[in-house]
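Suppose a colleague, Dr. K., hands you the sequence of a protein chain of 453 amino acids and asks what its three-dimensional shape might be. Before reaching for any lab equipment, you can write down a predicted structure in token form. Begin with the sequence itself:
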Amino acid sequence: MDLFAEQRRAARKGVEPLAVRMRPRSLDEFIGQQDFIGPGKLLRRTLEADRITSAIFYGPPGTGKTSLAEIIAAQTRSQFERVNAAGVGVKEIREILDAARSRLELEGRRTILFIDELHRFNRAQQDVLLGDVEAGLIILIGATTQNPFFALNAPLISRSQIFQFTPLSQADIKALMRRALSDRERGLGSHEVQLTDEAADHLATTSDGDARRALTALEIAVLSQLDPRRRQQKIVVDLLTAVESIQRKAIEYDGTGDSHYDAISAMIKSIRGSDPDAAVYWIARMLEAGEEPRFIARRIVIAAAEDIGNADPLALVIAQSAAAATEFVGLPECQLPLAQAAIYLACAPKSNASARAIWKAADDVRNQRTVPVPKHLRSTGYAGAKRLGAGEGYRYPPDAGDGIVDQEYLGVDRNYYMPTDRGAEADMQRYLDRVRGVQPDDRETGGLTQQGA
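The predicted structure, expressed as tokens, is then:
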């Protein structure tokens, strides 16, 4: 018997931060994620019935993944084992699985294995779990901040329910802070603390839906004002104190994961949707989070060619100039040309006619019969070209009065580029109508049909 176990537990509790002490002890105390943990919702029903199946808890930090696992541990009749993927290896996992198998066979009791930061397991380590999860010998609960469809093995995902945790609302964050201030046992209720409305608003906003960050800042704001020489004292957490306690806003952003791809997708779609305000917001968010500005510049160049194209040919020039300026001036000034280009693109007329033309032509090249170069278009810059008939009959368009000649350039009847009636493409369509009015309707196909080409 360990005579000092209670003393050690008390010592550990004495240094636990507020965010740990205030973890909910029951489902009724749990705040947030009401779409699946609220009254009558799926996960709540399975937990209350102690019938939980393997699940993946996926979402940003501070949204309740570990807290919910602690609630499960407290109320389940199954054996609850918890590990952090960063601190265990295959050997330890195999020992847990062997014990779980023996427990089920000898006692008829199942085992719930909670693995925090499950994405830190590589593919081989994840495969160790697969057999026992599939056979139902263990119930796996994995917590991850990364998209499980990218970070986890597909067979493991297919055998688990996925619950996506979202950032807590400002109202949820404020409710947690009020609970911490009134709780005398675990929170700050033993101190007389006044949290002003302005300070509460700032902490709730700046924490970005991360309960741990908000409670940590609140604790710092209170403890930094305590005078150890005074037993009773009133502490006011005002806006200035709140700003000092939380410091710079921490933006949840993974440069190789969901945040990276979702933010750049939002920027591209904002440009495509002609919303300059949204476009510059997503650029600002990415830069503030540490995104590589050249990555943003590349996507702006692509958007100019794909989504604006010839509706405004200047868009690509401006986008390329912004990319060059980004390389030349670097951070932080490169935010200026990036914003300028994004705003121009968002306000420009949209057309993907050029993109569709090359996509359709490339599809024909890959999947249809290859079209030979017509003889009159072939190169004549070598000895013997004339004997092969190369270039014979070619007519030089600039010599024609209006620069248009009756001449075939492909050899098959195909239309890839179909301009819109927006921006400069309307002028291009009028020009092409003139060109096509001069060229023959019955084109030489060189023995090829559209279907057979």
